[in-house]
């Protein structure tokens, strides 16, 4: 115990006052013997004993009262362990940063952790008083943050009561930075951030301070009950399983143990709504282990959703993960070689064939046949059925690689096949003649062509690469570029030394001509157009290394495969990529009049009219919940059907499943906050208020004794 004003203890000298009064007030009576009063002595003795007891009680009460006055003036206090933060009442600026990531749904004593956090936040809101300006900042990744502080505490309470865990991981650093910005705009001197968070290591960004040294005071409210162990399915992929027959697929799941104790986990594989396999995974502390399931897709089904689930724990939301399983459509490609070579790697088609059938695998998804330009004579009218006949109906895509301009008769046959739904890719080379192409090949071209230009002509060996062109400004939303980011170094680093230029637009191909990518000088690199119900794409450089080195860059393989599949209208299902909550999904829509997406929790969207007209793809962004998203499409015949090839799944970001607490040093340093951060270890309990109440009680007792 301590005293705020210890000098006031001098007042304890006042204890002598009631004692002195008591002693002075005592009188010694003179003894006078009187025989007539002897019979009263017995009664007097009993009365005297009661009187002495009252006097002694009165003396004790007065002495304690005098001591209580001195003690109260000295303001005694004691200390005890603090429960909860010390909150200052009055005008101030406050930001309540609350973790609403999916980890906040962790169950503690039958209640989600977020309920504990919001209850504590409401207590703080009450303690700071109505004069404080407050903002509630949610700490989940991508959360919408308030634009200003407010004194409308009733509305803030409603927000706290309505708060639910999201499906995104925590981004505590971004939330703290936004809280500091809101407080910086306030004119109040005292500025405090109350952090009610699980404070996981994955939610904090190393070496990224949310505020400077003069930022707000930080009060971290620890609501964790020690370690929070968690088990989760952190990844799930599906691949063909040739050993399982034509419908066999392999599911590879990863299960993680985010705790300091070993665990034995039972995992289940489901296809659709049916559990088809089970297995057990033994996990050491903080270990991740893969589990493979082999299964076959149901008969008559080309695409379906599948999932792997473990037994529910305190955080059940990350115990299940989805994937889209589909049988890959085989694309039949006819490659026409305009410059065949005896040396394999010098051949015009060497790199393209390797990209369409990497490793010459049977499950590559492409059936490729290569012919020479002379073999195209077999597609002339009336040639079908002859020894050299080539039936175009057996192919989805034709690639003309460095092919000289074809006769009009052959062009007409190819154009008719494209109008009926085929796809054609045209690339120039040493056999390219712009004038000849304009005379006969225009029905197959999206645009007329001009002579090639060599951007490195006359350059030295040292300057050649610096004068080369690069790919820029590609259509990121187009299915061809779906595997690439907007910067995609695997494409942007490629060099183009020679390209062909384009002339005026060819009016015969329709008004839907699109430039899909350009070079650094503004010239077109890829141009697409529709011919009837088919598609044509013109690539303005070569498919070998004569004019460019793009074919030896890692981006060429996915670019070639996506281009061929786009021309064949057989896109790889969107779900081969593990979409995370909050990510946008590109859906091919070229042949649809209406496209509808239906997801879990009534999430979805409808694309039609101007949102769909003239577009080859749409971007769906409402992926706020994990689960299966189905796609319905309405074609030109007004028939609406499920488009299984466009269906996709969305999963949680596995980073948020790791609930390991961050080290104290990972949190930002508390700023001055206009008054500093109160210590949270202990709290002072003032005792003089209680002494004042005791004093009043003593005075009341003294009055009662005097009256008696």
Question: What does this protein look like?
Answer:
The strands form 9 sheets. Strands 17-16-18-19-25-24-23-21 form an 8-stranded mixed beta sheet. Helix content is 21%, strand content 29%. It is α+β, with helices and mostly antiparallel strands. The protein has 5 domains: 2-81 and 687-707, no CATH class; 93-226 and 659-680, 3-Layer(aba) Sandwich (Rossmann fold); 230-327, Sandwich (Immunoglobulin-like); 331-568, 3-Layer(aba) Sandwich (Rossmann fold), CATH 3.40.50; 574-651, Macroglobulin (MG2) domain (Immunoglobulin-like). Mean pLDDT is 84; it is low at 381-387, 507-511 and 675-680. Helix 1 (16-25) packs antiparallel against helix 2.
Number of helices: 12
Task: Please summarize the sheet with the most strands.
Answer: 8 strands, mixed
CA-atom Rg in angstroms: 42 Å
Q: Which stretches are low in confidence, meaning pLDDT under 50 for 5 or more residues running?
A: 381-387, 507-511, 675-680
State the helicity in percent bands: 10-25%
Q: pLDDT average, as an integer?
A: 84
């Amino acid at each position: 115990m301590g005293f705020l004003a210890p000098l006031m203890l001098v007042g304890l000298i006042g204890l002598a006052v009631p004692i002195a009064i008591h002693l002075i007030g005592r009188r010694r009576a003179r003894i006078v013997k009187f025989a007539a009063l002897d019979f009263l002595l017995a009664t007097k003795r009993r009365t005297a004993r009661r009187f002495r007891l009252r006097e002694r009680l009165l003396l004790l009460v007065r002495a304690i009262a005098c001591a209580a006055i001195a003690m109260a003036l000295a303001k005694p206090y004691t200390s005890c362990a603090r429960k909860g933060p010390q909150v200052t009442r009055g005008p101030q600026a406050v930001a309540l940063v609350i973790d609403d990531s999916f980890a906040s749904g962790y169950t503690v004593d039958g209640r989600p952790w977020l309920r504990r956090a919001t209850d504590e936040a409401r207590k703080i809101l009450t303690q700071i008083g109505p004069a404080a300006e407050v903002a509630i900042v949610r700490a989940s990744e991508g959360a919408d943050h308030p634009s200003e502080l407010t004194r409308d505490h009733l509305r803030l309470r409603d927000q706290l009561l309505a708060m639910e865990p999201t499906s995104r991981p925590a981004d505590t650093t971004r939330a703290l930075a936004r809280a500091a910005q809101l407080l910086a705009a306030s004119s109040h001197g005292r500025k405090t951030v109350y952090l009610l968070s699980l404070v996981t290591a994955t939610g904090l960004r190393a070496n990224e301070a949310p505020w400077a040294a003069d930022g707000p005071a930080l009060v971290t409210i620890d609501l964790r009950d020690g370690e929070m162990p968690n088990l989760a399915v952190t990844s799930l992929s599906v691949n063909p399983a040739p050993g399982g027959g034509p419908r066999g697929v392999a599911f590879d799941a990863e299960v993680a143990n985010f705790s300091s104790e070993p665990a034995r986990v039972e995992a289940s594989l489901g296809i659709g709504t049916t559990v088809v396999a089970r297995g057990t995974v033994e996990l050491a502390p903080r270990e991740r282990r893969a589990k493979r399931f082999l299964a076959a897709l149901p008969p008559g089904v080309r695409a379906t959703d599948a999932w792997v689930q473990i037994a529910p724990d305190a955080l059940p939301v990350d115990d299940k993960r989805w994937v889209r399983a589909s049988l890959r459509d085989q694309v039949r490609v006819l490659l026409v070689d305009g410059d065949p070579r005896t040396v394999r790697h010098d051949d015009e088609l060497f790199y393209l064939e390797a990209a369409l059938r990497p490793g010459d695998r049977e499950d590559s998804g492409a059936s490729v046949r290569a012919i020479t330009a002379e073999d195209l004579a077999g597609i002339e009218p009336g040639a079908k059925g002859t020894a050299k006949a080539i039936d175009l109906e057996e192919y989805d895509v034709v690639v003309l690689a460095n092919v000289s301009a074809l006769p009009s008769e052959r062009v007409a046959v190819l154009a008719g096949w494209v109008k009926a739904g085929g796809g054609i890719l045209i690339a120039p080379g040493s056999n390219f003649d712009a004038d000849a192409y304009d005379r006969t090949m225009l029905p197959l071209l999206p645009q007329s062509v001009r002579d090639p230009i060599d951007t490195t002509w006359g350059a030295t060996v040292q300057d050649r690469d610096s004068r080369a062109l690069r790919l820029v400004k590609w259509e990121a939303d187009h299915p061809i570029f779906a595997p690439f980011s907007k910067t995609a170094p695997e494409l942007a680093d490629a060099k183009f030394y020679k390209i062909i230029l384009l002339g005026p637009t060819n009016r015969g191909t329709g008004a839907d001509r699109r430039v899909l990518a350009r070079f650094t000088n503004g010239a077109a690199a890829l141009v697409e157009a529709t011919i009837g119900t088919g598609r044509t794409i013109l690539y303005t450089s070569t498919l070998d290394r004569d004019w460019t080195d793009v074919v030896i860059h890692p981006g060429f393989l996915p670019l070639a495969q996506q281009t061929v599949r786009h021309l064949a209208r057989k896109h790889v299902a969107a779900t081969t990529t593990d979409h995370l909550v909050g990510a946008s999904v590109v859906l091919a829509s070229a042949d649809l009049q209406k496209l509808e997406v239906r997801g879990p929790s009534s999430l979805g969207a409808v694309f039609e009219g101007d949102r769909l007209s003239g577009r080859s793809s749409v971007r769906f962004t409402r992926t706020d919940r994990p689960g299966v998203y189905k796609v319905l499409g309405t074609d030109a015949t007004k028939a609406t059907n499920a488009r299984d090839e466009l269906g996709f799944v969305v999963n949680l970001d596995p980073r948020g499943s790791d609930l390991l607490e961050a080290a104290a040093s990972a949190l930002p340093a508390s700023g001055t906050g206009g008054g500093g951060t109160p210590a949270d270890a202990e709290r002072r309990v003032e005792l003089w208020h209680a002494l004042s109440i005791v004093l009043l009680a003593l005075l009341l007792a003294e009055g009662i004794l005097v009256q008696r």
